[in-house]
Specification:
mainly beta, Immunoglobulin-like
Length: 196
């Protein structure tokens, strides 16, 4: 056998033999910011029972974990302050790499809590979400309207109180009073509208 043929045969065996080549990693997460630039962020994998499988960081927008195991897990991407991404109920099966994409919006640099964020959900007596209901804060110039999920959002300054009327054609008006405090800056309220 020629010496070059022997080298070619060894190279071919190293590519074809699973024992001689590295197995791909179980998980690959591609992380980018909202401008589609690669993001470098902490990544934690946690099983559904609360066990931490791995802690790593995306480098150049890519995080890899080569040994995830067989338990169902969640991937937590980013810090806990704001903008964190959570992807739940993941499983790795077989020798293929599970590839995920995550878009991360950081608000650390431009985030300052100066008031309350209020979410109002409007539904009927049967629990169906009501689209198109008017949400009018007394003293506010423009009313809001609920979306397809029966939601409307308001902003309030700390230390203020707001009376809100919720109306929809064919239903009785409901009124609620909201108070914005520094220790309670995220407010969710559900309003049930009854038929007239």
């Amino acid at each position: 056998m020629c010496p070059h043929c022997h080298l070619a045969l060894l190279f071919a065996l190293s590519i074809a033999s699973p024992g001689l080549s590295a197995r791909p990693c179980d998980l690959r997460i591609l992380v980018e910011d909202f401008d589609r630039r690669p993001a470098e962020l902490p990544v934690v994998l946690i099983t559904d029972t609360g066990k931490v499988i791995a802690k790593t960081r995306s480098v150049g927008g890519v995080a890899e974990v080569c040994d995830v195991g067989v338990e169902t897990f969640s991937a937590v991407i980013g810090s806990e302050l704001c903008g964190q991404v959570l992807i739940r109920h993941l499983e790795v099966k077989g020798p293929r790499t599970l590839t995920l994409r995550a878009s991360y919006k950081s608000c650390h640099a431009d985030y300052f809590q100066a008031g309350c964020t209020v979410l109002i959900r409007v539904m009927d007596g049967a629990g169906r979400r009501l689209e198109g209901a008017t949400v009018q804060g007394i003293g506010r110039r423009y009313p809001g309207r609920t979306d397809a999920y029966g939601r409307d959002y308001l902003g309030m300054d700390f230390g203020t109180t707001l009376e809100v009327h919720v109306t929809l054609t064919g239903h009785r008006r409901e009124t609620l009073t909201l108070s914005c405090r520094e220790d309670l800056h995220q407010i969710e309220k559900t309003v049930v509208l009854k038929r007239e």
